[in-house]
Amino acid sequence: MNYIIAKGLIIPFLGTALGSALVFFMKKELDQRVQKILSGFAAGVMIAASIWSLLIPSIDMAADRGRLAFVPAVVGFCLGMVFLLILDKTVPHMHLDETQEGFKSNLQKTTMMVLAVTLHNIPEGMAVGILYAGWLSGSAQITEAGALSLAIGIAIQNFPEGAIISMPLHSKGLSKPKACWYGILSGIVEPVAGLLTILLASLILPALPYFLSFAAGAMMYVVVEELVPEMTEGEHSNMGTVAFMIGFALMMVLDVTLG
Fold first, then answer.
1. d(CA 256, CA 259)
2. Torsion angle of alpha carbons 163, 165, 170, 171, nearest 10°?
3. Residue 1 gets which letter from DSSP?
4. What pTM value is reported for the model?
5. In this predicted model, what pLDDT tens digit does every residue of 109-143 receive, in sequence order?
6. Which pLDDT tens digit goes with each residue over 32-43?
7. Contacts with 92 (C-beta within 8 Å, 6 or more apart), sequence order
8. 251 and 45 in contact (C-beta within 8 Å)?
9. Region label for 236, one of left (φ > 0), alpha (ψ between -120 and 50) or beta (otherwise)
10. Are 23 and 178 a contacting pair, CB within 8 Å?
11. What CA–CA distances, in Å, run from 130 to 100, 144, 157, 195?
């Protein structure tokens, strides 16, 4: 059982690490078409995972409330969205403009870019931890396969994020190994956040429906704020749309058949 949990917590981190390692194989940045395909696919995966792995279980767990079973899902979802909104206003956006006022040195830009992505990764790690905590509790609404499918979905979304960190850092003068290392560091918080969530399960489980929907809201914010603009702006947006369809359909099949 410990191996199963460790595997689930590490998978999202591996997505970030592999994306960061792209800096060793590419000269500049991700090709625009590749970026749109990855963003569209990740957006589809994350939306499907938010619905089937998080929101629906949240509503099912509150079934004893009758017609008010939607309350935990709505409250948690809105809190998750607001939390990420505040986070984005508090720290710099992960795609920093080199002319952005207040950041006059490459060191400051590097530090804040890594910080921004790192903070975005914490709710994702918590989401995986919450599902595994629910599975360990014996909840009929959450399965090990469902938690694993969410971890895989987050890993897919983290892959382009790792590249978004390492490639711009290399273009600013950092060596490839150091740029890759910064990208990897930004993902370490995910398994840590997931593990802490599991360790605090006794405190979390009574409010698990709220935590599940909170994670869904946080993930949905990332989709709307980060992934959808990346897949739709400029040329080749149709490639992002098709990738979104494939990602959503694939994750829906995984969640329904495995979860």
1. 5
2. 90
3. -
4. 0.72
5. 556 656 666 776 787 788 888 888 888 877 767 77
6. 787 788 788 878
7. 100, 103, 112, 113, 115, 116
8. yes
9. left
10. no
11. 36, 12, 18, 9
